[in-house]
């Protein structure tokens, strides 16, 4: 029912923003510190439109801790419930990616173990976390004061070249799969079996994550997919020549396809300061459009973070920098919350339509690529 309500009524991130934040300047008018004023405005905006974080490495990080309590706080990781609340994070995608070198049955088994760990962690922290699948459930969790946890992205190796395993992972809650690192999604692009995997993902409602995919795979996915795609950890290559960052021509194609580029808060991909991250957000918005840019904390993924963005509590500092640059409230609401909600809704609509047109695929990699 929540999904139906989301569609019958325009989401808050698009409508009503001027009224919501129109009074904020009054709150800050008497302040003598412009930086403090901007930070207060940022917190006010995030209270209404929290962050939907596109990538968290927390599941793998937790595997190495003998004991933890995310609701009280956990100093051994970058993410816990108190910091999620301080950073106004309303939803986050928990990565099921695996270390390099795991493939075949080992990759399938390790991914299932990750899924089991995530469900155990969420179950043991009911006051702070809630496992969700849809845009409506995500909003419901936020309204109940919980951070919504979405499963994925997982690595393509987790499928073991089996569409049956893809369906099983989806039944367990998987929402995104990264199309790279396998024979059917390689530097040469998608094979015939790879295209069939993508069609089955569309039918199920599993989002295609293209961060780290080859340019050939990206372009073929954009051509074949009926659902919008995302880049869970990609910034602008024009500003920083990292291989996972996107050149302007692909950003433009992504904008035309109404996909989503989620800019990571990592020093390696975006730069050492919060201003560098804001530069990438400015660039992606200018090239792809305001509806196609999002945020990816990439916390607990083993990467260094820019100054002032060291953990999940720091999002207000980034939003304050964007306010300083003149971002309006409507675009900021899309950046933090609205664009991820749109992607989830459109993926589910595509899946419902596809399920009426085609049964589950029985294709085998040996039949199509052998």
Automatic annotation (TrEMBL):
InterPro entries per UniProt: Metal_Hydrolase (IPR032466), Pept_M19 (IPR008257)
Coiled coil: none
Pfam family, one: Peptidase_M19
Gene3D superfamilies membership: Metal-dependent hydrolases
Region called Disordered, residue ranges: 350-370
Protein name: Dipeptidase
């Amino acid at each position: 029912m929540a999904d139906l309500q989301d569609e019958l009524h325009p989401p808050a991130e698009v409508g009503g923003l001027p009224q919501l934040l129109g009074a904020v300047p009054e709150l800050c008018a008497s302040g003598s510190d412009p930086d403090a004023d901007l930070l207060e405005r940022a917190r006010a905006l995030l209270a209404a439109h929290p962050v939907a974080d596109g990538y968290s490495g927390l599941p793998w990080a937790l595997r190495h801790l003998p004991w933890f309590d995310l609701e009280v706080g956990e100093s051994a990781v970058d993410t816990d419930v108190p910091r999620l609340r301080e950073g106004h994070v309303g939803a986050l995608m928990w990565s099921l990616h695996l270390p390099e070198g795991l493939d075949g049955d080992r990759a399938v088994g390790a991914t299932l173990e990750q899924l089991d760990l995530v469900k155990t962690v969420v179950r043991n922290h009911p006051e702070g976390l809630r496992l969700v699948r849809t845009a409506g459930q995500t909003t419901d969790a936020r309204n109940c004061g919980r951070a919504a946890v979405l499963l994925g992205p997982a690595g393509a190796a987790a499928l073991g070249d089996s569409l049956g395993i893809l369906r099983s992972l989806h039944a367990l809650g998987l929402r995104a799969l990264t199309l790279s690192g396998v024979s059917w999604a390689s530097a040469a692009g998608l094979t015939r079996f790879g295209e069939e995997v993508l069609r089955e993902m569309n039918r199920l409602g599993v989002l295609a994550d293209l961060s780290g995919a080859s340019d050939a795979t990206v372009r073929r996915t954009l051509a074949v997919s009926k659902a919008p795609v995302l880049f869970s950890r990609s910034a602008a290559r024009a500003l920083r020549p990292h291989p996972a960052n996107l050149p302007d021509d692909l950003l433009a194609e992504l904008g035309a396809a109404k996909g989503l580029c989620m800019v990571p808060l990592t020093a390696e991909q975006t730069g050492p300061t919060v201003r560098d991250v804001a530069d990438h957000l400015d660039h992606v918005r200018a090239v792809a459009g305001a509806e196609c840019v999002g945020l990816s904390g990439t916390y607990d993924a083993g990467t260094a973070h820019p100054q002032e963005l060291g953990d999940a509590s720091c999002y207000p500092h980034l939003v304050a920098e964007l306010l300083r640059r003149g971002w309006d409230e409507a675009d900021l609401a899309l950046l933090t919350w609205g664009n991820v909600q749109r992607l989830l809704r459109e993926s589910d609509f595509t899946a419902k339509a596809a399920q009426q047109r085609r049964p589950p695929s029985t294709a085998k990699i040996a039949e199509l690529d052998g």
